[in-house]
Amino acid sequence: MTDVPTPKPAYLISSMRLLQPQRLGPFRQAAAPLTAKAGAEALGAGDPSLRVLEGKWNHEGSVLVIERYPSMEGLLAMWNSPDFQAAKKLTAGLVDVNFTVAIEGR
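Request: output the structure for the sequence above.
Response:
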């Protein structure tokens, strides 16, 4: 028997300024089933809970979102899918993305 390595989790971390949060409903409706299918788990979101412990945070007024996925492969497949890329277009003019990164866990 060969042991199949268990995939390492992956984390999507994004910082963005919400310009028109009340108009993000269509994006949320389009993206939610895609991230759910990819196994995403929301770990944290928001600005009020953000505490800078060291250094400087140059994104005042922005929200930080952290999601865990079962694997980097699954996260990237969802992110690069035509359906998610179409959903992202629904945020044009509604959010200003500071950064989005993906990192593999241990």
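The two ends are 24 Å apart (CA to CA).
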